[in-house]
Write a structure and sequence with these properties.
There is one protein chain. This protein is mainly β and about 300 residues long. Helices cover about 15% and strands about 40% of the residues. It is built from five helices and 17 strands. The strands form three sheets. It has a six-stranded antiparallel β-barrel. It has a six-stranded antiparallel β-barrel with strand order 8-11-12-15-14-13. The protein has a two-stranded antiparallel ribbon with strand order 16-17. A hairpin with a 6-residue loop joins β4 and β5. The longest helix has 17 residues.
Length: about 300
């Protein structure tokens, strides 16, 4: 069974300040169309955001299609081709993000600085995106989602969240937001098994969640609610429980009707958070993988808070 949980305003504020909404701007209509969601995992002069690769790949294929003969065979060529076509559009501001990052929950536009995908999104549907902090926003105004590569058990409760729509966003020359009202959705269900060869992908293992995602949730976090210890010596006590990202929402799927854990409205594929650990971020010390950033404590991880 799955449900749409009711969260308190304080809980929603905590979550929404950590999840971003990726948008593509149409210069002809001066409107922005939603691409998907992502979530902030670190703030260090820039925002570091995890998302789903297909949010950007699918959009790029619609805007600048290019079917070279090696597609799906030579993954290095796919990655180079994506970077060549995507970077000019990113630098021109055609792709940007919106984040509610202050106590007043005012929306702010964020420019993308770098993006790193796996060589083949059908083998690893994760993206690491670096975004510029908007003018007038302090680092402490931004929320950071804890991540954890320790998976939740099969059958355990799991949450997913993301931006699934809202009113049309119109950008003026000063990037101000007009008539902007994003719709934010949260769903809860149970984690299914790790399927070794998820259909629709090239042999990748994915979690099967027994509840459906909505359009726009792709790239948002799959969360467990885990305890955070109080800052005192010893093993406890527990101070509070916080949502911790353990996976990334990928694509919806149709469940098999004869399975006992079937969800009548569909199911969802999700990438374990560890799939993004090989993605590269750019720092003053040069390129660094997400796994290296976690090891150097540039990116906070749930398990490091438990030591």
């Amino acid at each position: 069974m799955w449900a749409t949980p009711i969260w308190t305003p304080l809980e929603l504020n905590h979550l929404m300040r950590r999840i971003v909404w990726f948008l593509a701007h149409d210069e002809q209509t001066n409107t922005s169309m939603p691409l998907g969601s992502g979530f902030i995992v670190a703030v260090n002069q820039q925002m570091l955001v995890l998302s789903a690769a297909h949010n950007f790949v699918d959009w790029l294929e619609r805007v600048r299609p290019y079917n070279h003969p090696l597609r799906g065979v030579d993954y290095e060529a796919d990655a180079a081709d994506f970077a060549r076509r995507f970077r000019p559009l990113m630098l021109a501001g055609s792709v940007h993000a919106m984040v509610y990052c202050t106590e007043t929950m005012e929306p702010h536009f964020c420019a993308l600085a770098h993006i790193c995908l796996a060589h083949d999104p059908l083998r690893n549907d994760t993206a690491l995106v670096q975004m510029l902090i908007p003018d007038g926003v302090r680092e402490q105004d931004l929320g950071v989602m804890l991540i954890d590569d320790e998976p939740i058990d099969i059958g355990a409760p799991a949450f997913m969240a993301g931006y699934t729509g809202g009113r049309i966003i119109v950008r003026r020359e000063d990037n101000a937001v007009m008539r902007a009202k994003a719709r934010f959705d949260i769903r809860v269900g149970n984690r299914g098994p790790l399927v070794q060869a998820a259909e629709g992908y090239r042999g990748i293992a994915m979690w099967r969640l027994n509840f459906p995602s909505l359009g726009g949730m792709s790239g948002g976090p799959v969360m467990a609610v885990r305890p955070v210890r109080a800052p005192v010596a010893g093993p406890g006590p527990f101070r509070e429980s916080l949502p911790t990202a353990v996976g990334i929402v990928s694509r919806g799927r149709i469940g098999e009707p004869l399975l006992p854990d079937h969800c009548v409205d569909g199911e969802t594929w999700a990438s374990p958070i560890s799939y993004a650990f090989g993605q590269t971020m750019h720092t003053d010390d040069g390129p660094m993988t997400l796994a290296e950033a976690i090891q150097r404590q540039v990116v906070p991880r749930y398990s490091t808070l438990m030591i």
